Protein backbone atom coordinates (compact mmCIF):
# COMPACT_ATOMS: atom_id res chain seq x y z
CA UNK A 1 0.00 0.00 0.00
CA UNK A 2 2.70 2.49 0.95
CA UNK A 3 4.67 1.45 -2.10
CA UNK A 4 1.68 2.10 -4.29
CA UNK A 5 1.27 5.51 -2.70
CA UNK A 6 4.95 6.22 -3.22
CA UNK A 7 4.83 5.39 -6.88
CA UNK A 8 1.71 7.50 -7.26
CA UNK A 9 3.59 10.37 -5.66
CA UNK A 10 6.46 9.84 -8.08
CA UNK A 11 4.11 10.05 -11.02
CA UNK A 12 2.37 13.21 -9.93
CA UNK A 13 5.03 15.06 -7.96
CA UNK A 14 8.39 13.97 -9.37
CA UNK A 15 11.43 14.99 -7.39
CA UNK A 16 13.37 16.24 -10.42
CA UNK A 17 11.84 19.68 -10.00
CA UNK A 18 10.93 20.10 -13.67
CA UNK A 19 8.35 22.86 -13.97
CA UNK A 20 4.89 22.55 -12.47
CA UNK A 21 4.20 19.19 -10.79
CA UNK A 22 1.67 17.23 -12.79
CA UNK A 23 -0.45 16.88 -9.63
CA UNK A 24 -1.62 20.44 -10.25
CA UNK A 25 -3.10 19.30 -13.54
CA UNK A 26 -4.69 16.26 -11.95
CA UNK A 27 -6.37 18.63 -9.50
CA UNK A 28 -7.61 20.84 -12.36
CA UNK A 29 -9.18 17.86 -14.14
CA UNK A 30 -10.64 16.50 -10.90
CA UNK A 31 -12.11 19.93 -10.14
CA UNK A 32 -13.76 20.08 -13.57
CA UNK A 33 -15.17 16.57 -13.16
CA UNK A 34 -16.56 17.56 -9.76
CA UNK A 35 -18.14 20.77 -11.07
CA UNK A 36 -19.62 18.89 -14.03
CA UNK A 37 -21.07 16.23 -11.75
CA UNK A 38 -22.54 18.74 -9.32
CA UNK A 39 -23.61 21.30 -11.95
CA UNK A 40 -27.33 21.15 -11.01
CA UNK A 41 -26.41 21.98 -7.40
CA UNK A 42 -23.68 24.52 -8.10
CA UNK A 43 -25.08 26.49 -11.03
CA UNK A 44 -26.49 29.81 -9.80
CA UNK A 45 -29.38 29.73 -12.31
CA UNK A 46 -30.84 27.38 -14.88
CA UNK A 47 -28.45 27.37 -17.89
CA UNK A 48 -31.26 27.67 -20.41
CA UNK A 49 -33.32 30.39 -18.76
CA UNK A 50 -33.38 33.37 -21.06
CA UNK A 51 -33.46 36.89 -19.74
CA UNK A 52 -33.94 39.20 -22.67
CA UNK A 53 -33.55 42.29 -20.47
CA UNK A 54 -30.15 41.00 -19.41
CA UNK A 55 -28.56 40.29 -22.79
CA UNK A 56 -24.79 40.59 -23.29
CA UNK A 57 -24.14 41.86 -19.77
CA UNK A 58 -20.47 42.03 -18.79
CA UNK A 59 -19.16 39.95 -15.86
CA UNK A 60 -20.35 41.10 -12.46
CA UNK A 61 -23.53 42.81 -13.68
CA UNK A 62 -26.80 42.51 -11.80
CA UNK A 63 -29.81 42.49 -14.11
CA UNK A 64 -33.37 41.92 -12.88
CA UNK A 65 -32.17 40.45 -9.63
CA UNK A 66 -29.70 37.99 -11.19
CA UNK A 67 -25.98 38.40 -10.65
CA UNK A 68 -24.10 37.43 -13.81
CA UNK A 69 -20.74 36.45 -12.31
CA UNK A 70 -19.13 35.82 -15.69
CA UNK A 71 -21.60 37.86 -17.71
CA UNK A 72 -24.49 36.78 -19.89
CA UNK A 73 -24.80 35.65 -23.49
CA UNK A 74 -26.84 36.89 -26.43
CA UNK A 75 -30.09 35.53 -24.95
CA UNK A 76 -29.36 36.74 -21.42
CA UNK A 77 -28.41 33.29 -20.14
CA UNK A 78 -25.92 33.08 -17.29
CA UNK A 79 -22.49 32.26 -18.66
CA UNK A 80 -21.20 30.65 -15.45
CA UNK A 81 -24.12 28.20 -15.30
CA UNK A 82 -23.69 27.39 -18.97
CA UNK A 83 -19.97 26.80 -18.45
CA UNK A 84 -20.75 24.31 -15.65
CA UNK A 85 -23.29 22.45 -17.76
CA UNK A 86 -20.95 22.66 -20.76
CA UNK A 87 -18.34 20.78 -18.74
CA UNK A 88 -20.81 17.89 -18.50
CA UNK A 89 -21.09 17.70 -22.29
CA UNK A 90 -17.33 17.96 -22.89
CA UNK A 91 -16.38 15.39 -20.28
CA UNK A 92 -19.13 12.88 -20.95
CA UNK A 93 -18.73 12.96 -24.73
CA UNK A 94 -14.96 12.57 -24.38
CA UNK A 95 -15.26 9.82 -21.78
CA UNK A 96 -17.86 7.77 -23.64
CA UNK A 97 -16.19 8.11 -27.03
CA UNK A 98 -12.81 7.11 -25.57
CA UNK A 99 -14.46 4.14 -23.88
CA UNK A 100 -16.27 3.01 -27.03
CA UNK A 101 -13.40 3.55 -29.48
CA UNK A 102 -10.93 2.08 -26.97
CA UNK A 103 -13.02 -1.03 -26.56
CA UNK A 104 -13.56 -1.64 -30.27
CA UNK A 105 -9.99 -0.74 -31.23
CA UNK A 106 -8.39 -2.81 -28.48
CA UNK A 107 -10.39 -5.94 -29.22
CA UNK A 108 -9.74 -5.72 -32.97
CA UNK A 109 -6.06 -4.89 -32.48
CA UNK A 110 -5.54 -7.79 -30.06
CA UNK A 111 -7.33 -10.24 -32.34
CA UNK A 112 -5.24 -9.07 -35.32
CA UNK A 113 -2.01 -9.40 -33.35
CA UNK A 114 -2.84 -12.80 -31.90
CA UNK A 115 -4.61 -14.56 -34.77
CA UNK A 116 -2.26 -13.29 -37.52
CA UNK A 117 -2.89 -14.56 -41.05
CA UNK A 118 -5.78 -13.16 -43.07
CA UNK A 119 -7.55 -11.81 -39.99
CA UNK A 120 -4.53 -9.63 -39.31
CA UNK A 121 -4.34 -8.48 -42.92
CA UNK A 122 -8.01 -7.55 -43.11
CA UNK A 123 -8.16 -5.71 -39.78
CA UNK A 124 -4.94 -3.78 -40.23
CA UNK A 125 -5.82 -2.81 -43.80
CA UNK A 126 -9.14 -1.44 -42.58
CA UNK A 127 -7.21 0.51 -39.93
CA UNK A 128 -5.01 2.02 -42.67
CA UNK A 129 -8.09 2.98 -44.67
CA UNK A 130 -9.71 4.77 -41.74
CA UNK A 131 -6.47 6.61 -41.05
CA UNK A 132 -6.29 7.72 -44.70
CA UNK A 133 -9.24 10.06 -44.25
CA UNK A 134 -8.37 13.13 -42.16
CA UNK A 135 -10.22 12.57 -38.87
CA UNK A 136 -12.15 15.83 -38.89
CA UNK A 137 -13.41 15.19 -42.45
CA UNK A 138 -14.44 11.63 -41.58
CA UNK A 139 -16.32 12.98 -38.58
CA UNK A 140 -18.02 15.68 -40.65
CA UNK A 141 -19.22 13.36 -43.41
CA UNK A 142 -20.57 10.89 -40.84
CA UNK A 143 -22.41 13.66 -38.99
CA UNK A 144 -23.78 14.80 -42.36
CA UNK A 145 -25.32 11.34 -42.75
CA UNK A 146 -26.39 10.57 -39.18
CA UNK A 147 -27.31 14.11 -38.17
CA UNK A 148 -25.91 15.99 -35.16
CA UNK A 149 -26.74 15.37 -31.50
CA UNK A 150 -25.20 14.04 -28.29
CA UNK A 151 -25.36 10.30 -29.04
CA UNK A 152 -24.38 10.70 -32.69
CA UNK A 153 -21.33 12.77 -31.79
CA UNK A 154 -20.13 9.96 -29.51
CA UNK A 155 -20.73 7.37 -32.24
CA UNK A 156 -18.97 9.50 -34.84
CA UNK A 157 -15.94 10.09 -32.63
CA UNK A 158 -15.73 6.39 -31.79
CA UNK A 159 -15.96 5.48 -35.46
CA UNK A 160 -13.21 7.96 -36.29
CA UNK A 161 -10.78 7.13 -33.52
CA UNK A 162 -10.81 3.32 -32.94
CA UNK A 163 -7.90 2.73 -35.38
CA UNK A 164 -5.52 4.55 -33.00
CA UNK A 165 -6.14 1.94 -30.29
CA UNK A 166 -6.14 -0.92 -32.79
CA UNK A 167 -2.62 0.03 -33.93
CA UNK A 168 -1.25 0.19 -30.39
CA UNK A 169 -3.04 -2.95 -29.22
CA UNK A 170 -1.83 -4.78 -32.32
CA UNK A 171 1.81 -3.80 -31.85
CA UNK A 172 1.77 -4.60 -28.15
CA UNK A 173 0.02 -7.94 -28.70
CA UNK A 174 2.64 -8.97 -31.25
CA UNK A 175 5.39 -8.49 -28.69
CA UNK A 176 3.52 -10.19 -25.83
CA UNK A 177 2.13 -13.12 -27.84
CA UNK A 178 5.54 -14.74 -28.15
CA UNK A 179 6.25 -14.74 -24.43
CA UNK A 180 6.84 -18.26 -23.05
CA UNK A 181 3.87 -18.15 -20.68
CA UNK A 182 1.50 -17.30 -23.52
CA UNK A 183 2.91 -20.09 -25.66
CA UNK A 184 2.62 -22.46 -22.73
CA UNK A 185 -0.98 -21.66 -22.14
CA UNK A 186 -1.72 -22.07 -25.86
CA UNK A 187 -0.05 -25.47 -25.70
CA UNK A 188 -2.19 -26.38 -22.70
CA UNK A 189 -5.27 -25.77 -24.79
CA UNK A 190 -6.52 -22.43 -23.50
CA UNK A 191 -9.00 -20.81 -25.87
CA UNK A 192 -7.86 -17.66 -27.65
CA UNK A 193 -10.51 -15.57 -25.93
CA UNK A 194 -9.15 -16.67 -22.56
CA UNK A 195 -5.58 -15.96 -23.60
CA UNK A 196 -6.42 -12.51 -24.89
CA UNK A 197 -8.44 -11.61 -21.82
CA UNK A 198 -6.25 -13.08 -19.10
CA UNK A 199 -2.72 -13.08 -20.48
CA UNK A 200 -2.44 -10.43 -23.15
CA UNK A 201 -4.82 -7.67 -22.10
CA UNK A 202 -3.31 -7.13 -18.62
CA UNK A 203 0.10 -6.70 -20.25
CA UNK A 204 -0.90 -4.11 -22.80
CA UNK A 205 -3.28 -2.01 -20.73
CA UNK A 206 -0.50 0.34 -19.60
CA UNK A 207 0.38 1.37 -23.14
CA UNK A 208 -3.30 1.68 -24.00
CA UNK A 209 -3.98 3.91 -21.02
CA UNK A 210 -1.44 6.44 -22.29
CA UNK A 211 -3.14 6.48 -25.69
CA UNK A 212 -6.54 6.79 -24.02
CA UNK A 213 -5.40 9.76 -21.93
CA UNK A 214 -4.00 11.64 -24.91
CA UNK A 215 -7.07 10.73 -26.95
CA UNK A 216 -9.30 12.09 -24.17
CA UNK A 217 -7.79 15.54 -24.69
CA UNK A 218 -8.22 15.21 -28.42
CA UNK A 219 -11.85 14.11 -28.04
CA UNK A 220 -12.60 17.18 -25.91
CA UNK A 221 -11.19 19.29 -28.77
CA UNK A 222 -13.12 17.32 -31.39
CA UNK A 223 -16.43 17.66 -29.58
CA UNK A 224 -15.84 21.37 -29.12
CA UNK A 225 -14.79 21.66 -32.76
CA UNK A 226 -17.88 19.89 -34.06
CA UNK A 227 -20.12 21.95 -31.77
CA UNK A 228 -18.29 25.10 -32.89
CA UNK A 229 -19.14 24.20 -36.49
CA UNK A 230 -22.76 23.62 -35.48
CA UNK A 231 -22.44 19.86 -36.10
CA UNK A 232 -22.17 18.69 -32.51
CA UNK A 233 -24.47 18.89 -29.53
CA UNK A 234 -27.42 21.04 -30.54
CA UNK A 235 -28.79 24.20 -28.92
CA UNK A 236 -30.04 25.04 -26.37
CA UNK A 237 -27.77 22.47 -24.65
CA UNK A 238 -24.69 24.27 -23.39
CA UNK A 239 -21.41 23.16 -24.96
CA UNK A 240 -18.11 25.02 -24.78
CA UNK A 241 -17.62 24.73 -28.53
CA UNK A 242 -21.07 26.13 -29.31
CA UNK A 243 -20.52 28.95 -26.80
CA UNK A 244 -17.28 29.84 -28.58
CA UNK A 245 -19.12 29.89 -31.86
CA UNK A 246 -21.65 32.40 -30.49
CA UNK A 247 -18.83 34.35 -28.88
CA UNK A 248 -17.14 34.71 -32.24
CA UNK A 249 -20.15 36.63 -33.54
CA UNK A 250 -20.10 39.00 -30.56
CA UNK A 251 -16.36 39.32 -30.34
CA UNK A 252 -16.44 43.10 -30.84
CA UNK A 253 -18.96 43.91 -28.09
CA UNK A 254 -18.99 40.97 -25.65
CA UNK A 255 -15.49 39.52 -25.25
CA UNK A 256 -16.48 37.37 -22.26
CA UNK A 257 -18.71 34.96 -24.20
CA UNK A 258 -15.77 33.46 -26.13
CA UNK A 259 -13.09 34.02 -23.51
CA UNK A 260 -14.31 31.88 -20.61
CA UNK A 261 -15.25 28.69 -22.47
CA UNK A 262 -11.93 29.03 -24.32
CA UNK A 263 -9.99 29.17 -21.05
CA UNK A 264 -11.87 26.11 -19.72
CA UNK A 265 -11.20 24.12 -22.90
CA UNK A 266 -7.56 25.11 -22.98
CA UNK A 267 -7.00 24.24 -19.32
CA UNK A 268 -8.75 20.89 -19.62
CA UNK A 269 -6.92 19.83 -22.77
CA UNK A 270 -3.54 21.08 -21.54
CA UNK A 271 -3.96 19.27 -18.22
CA UNK A 272 -5.01 16.01 -19.83
CA UNK A 273 -2.13 16.19 -22.32
CA UNK A 274 0.43 16.83 -19.59
CA UNK A 275 -0.93 13.98 -17.49
CA UNK A 276 -0.69 11.74 -20.55
CA UNK A 277 2.91 12.84 -21.21
CA UNK A 278 3.93 12.16 -17.64
CA UNK A 279 2.17 8.81 -17.63
CA UNK A 280 4.01 7.85 -20.79
CA UNK A 281 7.39 8.92 -19.31
CA UNK A 282 6.64 6.90 -16.22
CA UNK A 283 5.66 3.77 -18.13
CA UNK A 284 8.58 3.97 -20.60
CA UNK A 285 11.53 5.05 -18.48
CA UNK A 286 13.78 4.84 -21.54
CA UNK A 287 12.15 7.81 -23.23
CA UNK A 288 13.00 10.12 -20.33
CA UNK B 1 14.32 0.14 -54.69
CA UNK B 2 11.92 -0.55 -57.56
CA UNK B 3 10.24 -3.37 -55.71
CA UNK B 4 9.88 -1.12 -52.66
CA UNK B 5 8.30 1.59 -54.82
CA UNK B 6 5.88 -0.87 -56.40
CA UNK B 7 4.86 -2.41 -53.09
CA UNK B 8 4.35 1.00 -51.51
CA UNK B 9 2.33 2.11 -54.55
CA UNK B 10 0.23 -1.03 -54.23
CA UNK B 11 -0.49 -0.17 -50.59
CA UNK B 12 -1.61 3.31 -51.57
CA UNK B 13 -3.95 1.96 -54.23
CA UNK B 14 -5.48 -0.45 -51.71
CA UNK B 15 -6.00 2.46 -49.34
CA UNK B 16 -7.63 4.53 -52.11
CA UNK B 17 -9.92 1.63 -53.00
CA UNK B 18 -10.77 1.22 -49.32
CA UNK B 19 -11.53 4.90 -48.79
CA UNK B 20 -13.99 4.90 -51.66
CA UNK B 21 -15.66 1.78 -50.27
CA UNK B 22 -15.83 3.38 -46.83
CA UNK B 23 -17.43 6.56 -48.19
CA UNK B 24 -19.89 4.45 -50.17
CA UNK B 25 -20.96 2.67 -47.00
CA UNK B 26 -21.08 5.82 -44.87
CA UNK B 27 -23.57 7.22 -47.42
CA UNK B 28 -25.77 4.25 -46.69
CA UNK B 29 -25.45 4.27 -42.89
CA UNK B 30 -29.06 5.32 -42.48
CA UNK B 31 -30.28 2.98 -45.19
CA UNK B 32 -31.23 5.20 -48.09
CA UNK B 33 -28.87 7.92 -49.34
CA UNK B 34 -31.69 9.58 -51.31
CA UNK B 35 -32.71 11.46 -48.18
CA UNK B 36 -29.26 13.05 -48.02
CA UNK B 37 -29.62 14.38 -51.53
CA UNK B 38 -33.07 15.92 -51.59
CA UNK B 39 -34.05 19.21 -49.96
CA UNK B 40 -35.91 18.90 -46.65
CA UNK B 41 -39.10 20.18 -48.29
CA UNK B 42 -39.23 17.37 -50.89
CA UNK B 43 -42.47 15.41 -51.21
CA UNK B 44 -42.65 11.62 -51.33
CA UNK B 45 -42.99 11.74 -55.14
CA UNK B 46 -39.93 13.96 -55.46
CA UNK B 47 -37.99 11.46 -53.40
CA UNK B 48 -39.15 8.53 -55.54
CA UNK B 49 -38.29 10.42 -58.72
CA UNK B 50 -34.88 11.37 -57.38
CA UNK B 51 -34.16 7.82 -56.27
CA UNK B 52 -34.92 6.58 -59.75
CA UNK B 53 -33.07 9.39 -61.54
CA UNK B 54 -29.92 8.72 -59.52
CA UNK B 55 -30.18 4.98 -59.98
CA UNK B 56 -30.41 4.42 -56.22
CA UNK B 57 -33.15 1.83 -56.79
CA UNK B 58 -30.72 -0.46 -58.60
CA UNK B 59 -28.89 -3.40 -56.98
CA UNK B 60 -26.25 -2.29 -54.47
CA UNK B 61 -23.42 -3.89 -56.40
CA UNK B 62 -24.25 -2.00 -59.60
CA UNK B 63 -24.33 1.26 -57.64
CA UNK B 64 -20.98 0.41 -56.07
CA UNK B 65 -19.31 -0.20 -59.44
CA UNK B 66 -20.81 3.01 -60.82
CA UNK B 67 -19.62 5.01 -57.84
CA UNK B 68 -16.11 3.72 -58.43
CA UNK B 69 -16.14 4.49 -62.11
CA UNK B 70 -17.35 8.04 -61.54
CA UNK B 71 -14.96 8.77 -58.70
CA UNK B 72 -11.95 7.42 -60.55
CA UNK B 73 -12.77 9.63 -63.52
CA UNK B 74 -12.90 12.54 -61.03
CA UNK B 75 -16.63 12.94 -61.50
CA UNK B 76 -17.88 13.71 -57.99
CA UNK B 77 -21.45 14.31 -59.12
CA UNK B 78 -23.49 17.48 -59.29
CA UNK B 79 -24.64 19.74 -56.46
CA UNK B 80 -28.45 19.82 -56.30
CA UNK B 81 -28.48 23.08 -54.43
CA UNK B 82 -26.21 25.01 -56.78
CA UNK B 83 -26.81 22.86 -59.89
CA UNK B 84 -23.11 22.92 -60.72
CA UNK B 85 -20.66 19.96 -60.94
CA UNK B 86 -18.89 19.38 -57.62
CA UNK B 87 -15.51 19.48 -59.37
CA UNK B 88 -16.21 23.05 -60.51
CA UNK B 89 -17.23 24.13 -57.01
CA UNK B 90 -14.15 22.54 -55.47
CA UNK B 91 -11.86 24.05 -58.10
CA UNK B 92 -13.16 27.53 -57.32
CA UNK B 93 -12.44 27.17 -53.59
CA UNK B 94 -9.21 25.17 -53.72
CA UNK B 95 -6.86 28.12 -54.40
CA UNK B 96 -7.95 29.80 -51.13
CA UNK B 97 -7.23 26.70 -49.08
CA UNK B 98 -3.86 26.19 -50.77
CA UNK B 99 -2.96 29.82 -50.06
CA UNK B 100 -3.92 29.40 -46.41
CA UNK B 101 -2.07 26.09 -46.07
CA UNK B 102 1.06 27.61 -47.62
CA UNK B 103 0.90 30.54 -45.21
CA UNK B 104 0.43 28.22 -42.25
CA UNK B 105 3.31 25.97 -43.35
CA UNK B 106 5.55 29.01 -43.65
CA UNK B 107 4.62 30.12 -40.11
CA UNK B 108 5.16 26.60 -38.78
CA UNK B 109 8.58 26.06 -40.38
CA UNK B 110 10.00 29.54 -39.89
CA UNK B 111 9.14 29.53 -36.18
CA UNK B 112 9.14 25.82 -35.37
CA UNK B 113 12.49 24.71 -36.81
CA UNK B 114 14.71 27.41 -35.22
CA UNK B 115 12.77 27.00 -31.99
CA UNK B 116 13.47 23.26 -31.92
CA UNK B 117 17.14 23.84 -32.67
CA UNK B 118 17.36 26.42 -29.90
CA UNK B 119 15.64 24.14 -27.41
CA UNK B 120 18.04 21.32 -28.22
CA UNK B 121 21.26 23.37 -28.12
CA UNK B 122 20.38 25.40 -25.04
CA UNK B 123 19.24 22.58 -22.83
CA UNK B 124 18.79 23.23 -19.14
CA UNK B 125 18.82 27.00 -19.34
CA UNK B 126 16.18 28.61 -17.16
CA UNK B 127 14.27 30.03 -20.13
CA UNK B 128 14.01 26.76 -22.07
CA UNK B 129 11.32 25.56 -19.68
CA UNK B 130 9.29 28.62 -20.57
CA UNK B 131 9.76 28.05 -24.32
CA UNK B 132 8.85 24.39 -23.96
CA UNK B 133 5.74 25.55 -22.12
CA UNK B 134 4.79 27.73 -25.08
CA UNK B 135 5.23 24.77 -27.43
CA UNK B 136 2.99 22.62 -25.21
CA UNK B 137 0.42 25.39 -24.93
CA UNK B 138 0.32 25.76 -28.72
CA UNK B 139 -0.49 22.06 -28.93
CA UNK B 140 -3.40 22.28 -26.51
CA UNK B 141 -4.85 25.50 -27.90
CA UNK B 142 -8.04 24.89 -29.86
CA UNK B 143 -7.57 26.73 -33.17
CA UNK B 144 -11.05 28.16 -32.94
CA UNK B 145 -10.14 29.83 -29.67
CA UNK B 146 -6.70 31.12 -30.65
CA UNK B 147 -8.36 32.47 -33.80
CA UNK B 148 -11.03 34.30 -31.84
CA UNK B 149 -8.42 35.71 -29.43
CA UNK B 150 -6.42 37.05 -32.37
CA UNK B 151 -9.53 38.60 -33.89
CA UNK B 152 -10.27 40.19 -30.52
CA UNK B 153 -6.76 41.58 -30.10
CA UNK B 154 -5.52 42.47 -33.59
CA UNK B 155 -8.82 42.82 -35.40
CA UNK B 156 -11.06 44.56 -32.88
CA UNK B 157 -8.98 46.16 -30.12
CA UNK B 158 -5.92 47.26 -32.06
CA UNK B 159 -7.52 47.33 -35.48
CA UNK B 160 -4.28 46.33 -37.20
CA UNK B 161 -5.69 43.50 -39.30
CA UNK B 162 -9.06 42.79 -40.94
CA UNK B 163 -11.00 40.52 -38.53
CA UNK B 164 -12.28 38.16 -41.23
CA UNK B 165 -12.86 37.58 -44.91
CA UNK B 166 -10.40 37.51 -47.79
CA UNK B 167 -9.08 39.75 -50.50
CA UNK B 168 -5.66 41.04 -49.46
CA UNK B 169 -2.43 39.81 -47.94
CA UNK B 170 -3.46 41.30 -44.59
CA UNK B 171 -6.47 38.99 -44.55
CA UNK B 172 -4.18 35.98 -44.80
CA UNK B 173 -1.99 36.77 -41.77
CA UNK B 174 -4.21 35.78 -38.83
CA UNK B 175 -5.67 32.59 -40.36
CA UNK B 176 -2.15 31.44 -41.28
CA UNK B 177 -0.90 31.95 -37.75
CA UNK B 178 -3.95 30.25 -36.20
CA UNK B 179 -3.58 27.25 -38.50
CA UNK B 180 0.22 27.17 -38.31
CA UNK B 181 0.55 27.18 -34.52
CA UNK B 182 -0.20 23.50 -34.05
CA UNK B 183 2.23 22.46 -36.80
CA UNK B 184 4.76 24.87 -35.34
CA UNK B 185 4.66 22.86 -32.13
CA UNK B 186 5.12 19.62 -34.08
CA UNK B 187 8.13 21.03 -35.96
CA UNK B 188 9.70 22.33 -32.76
CA UNK B 189 9.32 18.97 -31.02
CA UNK B 190 10.61 16.91 -33.97
CA UNK B 191 13.52 19.26 -34.61
CA UNK B 192 14.47 19.25 -30.92
CA UNK B 193 14.50 15.47 -30.58
CA UNK B 194 16.20 15.07 -33.95
CA UNK B 195 19.03 17.46 -33.03
CA UNK B 196 19.41 15.85 -29.59
CA UNK B 197 19.65 12.51 -31.35
CA UNK B 198 22.42 13.77 -33.67
CA UNK B 199 24.28 15.47 -30.83
CA UNK B 200 24.79 12.16 -29.08
CA UNK B 201 26.42 10.57 -32.13
CA UNK B 202 30.11 9.82 -32.47
CA UNK B 203 30.85 12.07 -35.44
CA UNK B 204 29.73 15.13 -33.48
CA UNK B 205 31.86 14.17 -30.52
CA UNK B 206 34.92 13.60 -32.69
CA UNK B 207 34.33 16.86 -34.53
CA UNK B 208 34.13 18.63 -31.18
CA UNK B 209 37.30 16.88 -30.07
CA UNK B 210 39.03 18.09 -33.22
CA UNK B 211 38.11 21.59 -32.17
CA UNK B 212 35.48 22.38 -34.81
CA UNK B 213 33.67 25.60 -33.87
CA UNK B 214 30.09 25.20 -32.66
CA UNK B 215 28.71 27.44 -35.40
CA UNK B 216 30.39 25.47 -38.15
CA UNK B 217 29.34 22.23 -36.49
CA UNK B 218 25.71 23.28 -36.40
CA UNK B 219 25.61 24.54 -39.98
CA UNK B 220 27.75 21.90 -41.68
CA UNK B 221 26.73 18.74 -39.83
CA UNK B 222 23.89 19.08 -37.43
CA UNK B 223 21.36 20.90 -39.60
CA UNK B 224 21.88 18.63 -42.57
CA UNK B 225 21.42 15.39 -40.70
CA UNK B 226 18.60 16.44 -38.46
CA UNK B 227 16.73 17.84 -41.45
CA UNK B 228 15.68 14.34 -42.56
CA UNK B 229 12.80 13.79 -40.13
CA UNK B 230 11.78 17.42 -40.50
CA UNK B 231 11.47 17.17 -44.27
CA UNK B 232 9.52 13.94 -44.17
CA UNK B 233 7.14 15.28 -41.53
CA UNK B 234 6.29 18.13 -43.93
CA UNK B 235 4.47 15.78 -46.27
CA UNK B 236 2.33 14.58 -43.37
CA UNK B 237 1.78 18.09 -42.01
CA UNK B 238 0.37 19.27 -45.35
CA UNK B 239 -2.58 16.90 -45.11
CA UNK B 240 -2.99 17.88 -41.44
CA UNK B 241 -3.15 21.52 -42.46
CA UNK B 242 -5.78 20.87 -45.12
CA UNK B 243 -7.95 19.15 -42.51
CA UNK B 244 -7.31 21.85 -39.90
CA UNK B 245 -8.44 24.43 -42.44
CA UNK B 246 -12.04 23.33 -41.87
CA UNK B 247 -12.17 25.08 -38.51
CA UNK B 248 -9.81 27.97 -39.19
CA UNK B 249 -11.67 28.92 -42.36
CA UNK B 250 -14.93 28.94 -40.42
CA UNK B 251 -13.45 31.19 -37.73
CA UNK B 252 -12.11 33.74 -40.23
CA UNK B 253 -14.82 33.33 -42.91
CA UNK B 254 -12.03 32.38 -45.34
CA UNK B 255 -13.77 31.11 -48.49
CA UNK B 256 -11.80 27.87 -48.97
CA UNK B 257 -12.68 24.18 -49.02
CA UNK B 258 -13.16 23.98 -45.25
CA UNK B 259 -15.81 26.68 -45.13
CA UNK B 260 -17.38 25.08 -48.20
CA UNK B 261 -17.62 21.74 -46.39
CA UNK B 262 -19.29 23.22 -43.33
CA UNK B 263 -21.69 25.30 -45.42
CA UNK B 264 -22.55 22.23 -47.48
CA UNK B 265 -23.34 20.14 -44.39
CA UNK B 266 -25.61 22.88 -43.11
CA UNK B 267 -27.38 23.34 -46.46
CA UNK B 268 -27.61 19.54 -46.87
CA UNK B 269 -25.51 19.52 -50.04
CA UNK B 270 -24.13 16.05 -49.40
CA UNK B 271 -22.44 15.51 -52.78
CA UNK B 272 -20.13 18.45 -52.13
CA UNK B 273 -19.19 17.16 -48.65
CA UNK B 274 -18.41 13.80 -50.17
CA UNK B 275 -16.27 15.37 -52.89
CA UNK B 276 -14.17 17.26 -50.36
CA UNK B 277 -13.75 14.15 -48.19
CA UNK B 278 -12.59 12.08 -51.18
CA UNK B 279 -10.17 14.83 -52.18
CA UNK B 280 -8.86 15.08 -48.60
CA UNK B 281 -8.27 11.33 -48.48
CA UNK B 282 -6.56 11.38 -51.87
CA UNK B 283 -4.18 14.12 -50.71
CA UNK B 284 -3.47 12.26 -47.46
CA UNK B 285 -2.70 9.00 -49.23
CA UNK B 286 -0.50 10.80 -51.74
CA UNK B 287 1.38 12.68 -49.01
CA UNK B 288 1.93 9.53 -46.93
CA UNK B 289 3.29 7.87 -50.06
CA UNK B 290 5.63 10.79 -50.77
CA UNK B 291 6.81 10.89 -47.16
CA UNK B 292 7.77 7.22 -47.25
CA UNK B 293 9.50 7.51 -50.61
CA UNK B 294 11.37 10.62 -49.51
CA UNK B 295 12.42 8.94 -46.33
CA UNK B 296 13.72 5.85 -48.07
CA UNK B 297 15.66 7.94 -50.60
CA UNK B 298 17.35 9.96 -47.90
CA UNK B 299 17.96 7.02 -45.62
CA UNK B 300 18.26 3.78 -47.60
CA UNK B 301 18.26 1.72 -44.40
CA UNK B 302 14.54 2.32 -44.12
CA UNK B 303 12.40 0.01 -46.17
CA UNK B 304 8.82 -1.07 -46.17
CA UNK B 305 8.94 -3.62 -43.38
CA UNK B 306 10.66 -1.14 -41.08
CA UNK B 307 13.31 -3.61 -39.97
CA UNK B 308 16.14 -1.66 -41.60
CA UNK B 309 19.14 -3.28 -43.04
Radius of gyration of chain A: 22 Å
User: How many strands appear in the DSSP assignment of chain B?
Assistant: 0
Q: Please summarize the sheet with the most strands of chain A.
A: 2 strands, antiparallel
CATH topology of chain A: MetI-like fold
Percentage of residues in strands of chain A: under 5%
Order of helices and strands of chain B: HHHHHHHHHHHH
Low-confidence stretches of chain A: none
Number of spatially distinct domains of chain A: 1
Number of strands of chain A: 2
> Based on the structure given, which CATH architecture of chain A is correct?
Orthogonal Bundle
Low-confidence stretches of chain B: 304-309
What overall form of chain B do the CA principal axes indicate? flat
Cα radius of gyration of chain B in angstroms: 24 Å
**Average predicted local confidence, pLDDT of chain B:** 84
Summarize the main sheet of chain B.
Answer: none
Class derived from helix and strand content of chain A: mainly alpha
**N-to-C span of chain A:** 26 Å
Strand arrangement within the widest β-sheet of chain A reads 1-2
Please give a structural write-up.
The complex is a heterodimer of chains A (288) and B (309). The longest helix of chain A has 37 residues, at 79-115. Chain A has one domain: MetI-like (MetI-like fold, Orthogonal Bundle). In chain A, strand 1 (61-63) and strand 2 form a beta hairpin. Chain A has 288 residues and is an all-alpha fold. Chain A has helices at 2-12, 22-37, 39-42, 79-115, 117-132, 135-146, 150-177, 180-187, 192-228, 240-249, 255-283; strands at residues 61-63, 66-68. Chain A has a two-stranded antiparallel ribbon with strand order 1-2. The radius of gyration of chain A is 22 Å and the shape is elongated. The model of chain A has no long low-confidence stretch (mean pLDDT 86). Chain A contains 11 helices and 2 strands. By secondary structure, chain B is an all-alpha fold. The longest helix of chain B is centred in the C-terminal third of the chain and has 39 residues, at 214-252. Chain B is flat and about 85 Å long. In chain B, helix 5 (86-121) packs antiparallel against helix 10, helix 7 (143-157) packs across helix 10 and helix 11 packs antiparallel against helix 12. In chain B, 76% of the residues lie in helices and 0% in strands. Classes of the chains: A mainly alpha (288), B mainly alpha (309). At the A-B interface, helix 5, helix 6, helix 9, helix 10 and helix 11 of A face helix 1, helix 6, helix 7, helix 10 and helix 11 of B.
